[in-house]
């Protein structure tokens, strides 16, 4: 039996007062900040145990990403920068919900089941976003880490992907990069400058990009990084946190769901703009055309642009590597059709949550994964990286082959392979547009999105909805899927699904159809079906239009 008396005494300073039942969801725990003190302490403890178990550095990130400012949350980062192993999510849920007197029992159970040797050293790195509650909550997580005798390093204010990067650096003997925020800026900017070296004729207009920082950590970190980019990208930063509220009427989630520009940004026709979310792990692009119509380039368009670029380079390099794209049920039907039918790329559908997409993408030489909401990255297998490196050094290869291999090498250095990263994705998109001499309008024209609508429905308990087939069909409550099927039949090119959110207390509804009016109507009718059959609360859903 491990000696957990000291840990127990420290836990009494962070009691489970509210008795709220929480679930380790899509991206860790998320709820009102005031309900999270005991959860943070216990996640600090779990991170220490995970570090002992894996004999590696583990990360604790305090953030609620796209949620409103009064929420907060925590996610654990596994050794290679990936999300916490799903088997441990169950431990996290048990620990977070344990009564005071059960805490030691559950810790003991984890130690025994996982055969953790408590004398082994542990090291946990901690980061936080800019929410007013984050500093105190991260200190509580550190208390939890210390309570089990683990060492830690507090990286303070960092984006979520920066912390994932730092964890990976620690566990690869700094082969992945230097384990610091400066190391991150150096690695990414070097790759970006190498890529854009081949585009000497870009005018300042081409280099100009407007960024909505969602009043969050991404804005702060982009300002720090700007100098490293040596004016090869000219950034105008809006919603930088000096005036507005985090994620309020701005940020990637707002822009994607509302399908309109964020507040606080001045846009002229044709100007390229992008929005980060609250912890800078997502990005979406957009512009106004000359008729003042708003055009959104979401995760699907980003995946298509990156995949096109990679496939062209592989052809030039004459490298035979399998490229696949992983999407979720939210992927626009047009994007999937374009990727499969025009680009002849293998496309897979995973459940919502980066952890699901990441695992699927690991199965290919090059796995491009993006959620439609702008969260995604590209994974290169070890073998693919080796082949690209060998080609760079191959003296018998042609100039064109070597140049393509170098571009691939810089692409894999620029992309944050640990997790979706707004800054890294943005830099890669900017480099690709520059190299291809492409405008945002030309990128947008690769395919035309089917009109779509996303809405939220409040229900008493969202767990009554259970889904299958990568969340594309509902298996409970009874009658819901049949209702959706019969509604979908009434519209052309239509599709709809519902799923309980893993980050907010709502049910999400997605619908697409031949026209925006029909997508709006279908989403409305499906949300009424959810309201009636899944225990809707409050007012009946109304039609949502842009
Ligand atoms: C998190 C996850 C994403 C997911 C999003 C919404 O994003 O990391 O994979 O798409 O939540 O999830 P849900 O629909 O279950 O609420 P973020 O950017 O908030 O961390």
UniProtKB/TrEMBL annotation:
E.C. number: 5.4.2.3
Positions of transmembrane segments: none
Entry annotation: catalytic residues: 65 (phosphoserine intermediate)
Domain Alpha-D-phosphohexomutase C-terminal: 455-526
Keyword set, alphabetical order: Acetylation, Carbohydrate metabolism, Isomerase, Magnesium, Metal-binding, Phosphoprotein
Record has Transport as a keyword: no
Cofactor binding note from Swiss-Prot or TrEMBL: Binds 1 Mg(2+) ion per subunit.
Protein residues bound to substrate: 371-373, 499-503, 508
Domain Alpha-D-phosphohexomutase alpha/beta/alpha: 51-100, 122-170
Pfam family, one: AMG1_III
Catalysed reactions, as listed in the record: N-acetyl-alpha-D-glucosamine 1-phosphate = N-acetyl-D-glucosamine 6-phosphate
Cofactor: Mg(2+)
Gene3D superfamilies: Alpha-D-Glucose-1,6-Bisphosphate, subunit A, domain 3, Alpha-D-phosphohexomutase, C-terminal domain
GO molecular function: magnesium ion binding; phosphoacetylglucosamine mutase activity
Pathway(s) the chain acts in: Nucleotide-sugar biosynthesis; UDP-N-acetyl-alpha-D-glucosamine biosynthesis; N-acetyl-alpha-D-glucosamine 1-phosphate from alpha-D-glucosamine 6-phosphate (route I): step 2/2
Residues at which Mg(2+) binds: 65, 277, 279, 281
Role of this protein: Catalyzes the conversion of GlcNAc-6-P into GlcNAc-1-P during the synthesis of uridine diphosphate/UDP-GlcNAc, a sugar nucleotide critical to multiple glycosylation pathways including protein N- and O-glycosylation.
Designated name of the protein: Phosphoacetylglucosamine mutase
